[in-house]
Structure formats: C-alpha cells, structure tokens
Amino acid sequence: MLKSLLRRPRAQATLAWLSGLYLDFALRTTRWRIVGAELLAPHIAGRPVIVAFWHERLPLMPMLWRTAQQSPGARLAGTRVHILVSSHRDGRFIGAAMRRFRMETVFGSSTRSSARWLRNMSLQQTRGDIVAITPDGPRGPRRRAAPGVAQLAALSGVPVLACAGQTTSRLVLSSWDRMVAPVPFGRATLVCQPTISVARDGWEPALPAIVAALDEAAATADRLCGG
Fold it and tell me: Is the pTM for the entire model greater than 0.85?
C-alpha cells in the first residue's frame, strides 16, 4: 500500500519537499571547509566549468554551490546550475529536492550517448551557466564513468572540475551507489581537483583521467573525515 501511495505524483512531490527540507537543515548545521579552493576560484569569478562528482556524493554537493555564491569576488549573479538527472521517477524525485538549492535539472543520462542532452547542456554553458554531472549516474555501475562527461567537455571546450564531499556525521544508504546521507551537526570537507581539459577530437583518452580525479577527490574527502 505504501509503495502504491508513493507512486502518486502528489505523494512524490510531498516526499521530495520533505527530503529537501531535511537536507537543507543537515547541510546548514554542518561545519564546512574546502580543500582546493584556489582551483574553484577562477570559476567563481566567471570562468566556465563542468563540475563532476560521483553519484553517491550528490546530497553533499549543493554546499559547493552555496560556498561559491558566498565567496569573495564571486560573479555568479544570475548564474544557474544545471544538473543532469534521470528522467526516471527516482531522477525526478532528486530533481525536485535539488530545486530547494536553486539547482535546475536537465533530464537525460550520462550512461548513454545522447546528442539531445549534449546539445542542451552545451547550450547552458554558452549562456554562462554551470553544468554539474554525476558520470556514473543515474543507475551505475558505481564509480564507472560513462563517456558523457568527456564528450560534453570536448563539445563545449569547457574543462572538468572533479569534486567530492564527505561528512563525519552520515548514513550510508543501501542503494546501488552507497549514497552518503548527511546527519546534522557534523564536520564536512569539499575537495576540488585540478581541472581537466578535453581535446575536441579526442575525448576517449581524457575519460580515465577524469575517473582518477574523481576517485582521488573522494578518497581525500574520506580521509579528512575519517571515512
């Protein structure tokens, strides 16, 4: 009966609103620091970038956007963040929760080559907006990057900034990606790696470098938070 109820659009919308409310509270009551802030600084000042992180860290990453907005010298007035999510029910649920953080959703999948979403995301960048991608989303396999992130970087000429977050107070869900859910009043770290540029005619060699940077960001965040 509960599963049947949660399939209803109104119930899904209510649950997404409650989830966003809780996530907002958990993130606001956590003490944050950034490792690699100098790598983020040029993009806070307006240089285009593709922000990438593993799907498991998605609940933590709105704080990267909030931190960027509050940083000295930020030129983000009018800038929007577009995050790629699945058009499946789970993706739409995540998208509804992310809207609380002024992050807009683009429905698609980085696990399949899709000219439509590639053009859509590239268009957002030409408008000066920021694009965020979980290269192993929406359904895995865990930490296996699909080509979409490198293809978008090649198409747009915009570099990839690999990031991760971790918190000392967390629950690890039993989902395919072992998603990290923050618990209030912890200490957390956001990690940024050096950007990776992708040649327009050679995205394939860049993909392993992006994966290595994503893994290194996650490992650093885990180490600093006792994970």
Answer: yes
The 10 Å CB-count burial string (b at 16+, else e) for 194-211 is ebbebeeeebeebbebbb
| Dihedral sign computed on CA atoms, order 133, 139, 144, 148 | negative
Domain that holds residue 94: 2-224
Gap between the Cα atoms of 156 and 151, Å rounded? 9
Q: At what angle do helices 115-126 and 148-156 cross, to 10 degrees?
A: 50
Give 96-139 pLDDT, tens digit per residue: 777 788 787 776 655 554 556 666 666 666 566 788 999 997 77
Q: Please list, in sequence order, all residues whose beta carbon lies within 8 angstroms of the beta carbon of residue 129, skipping any fewer than 6 positions away.
A: 79, 80, 81, 82
The count of domains in the chain is 1
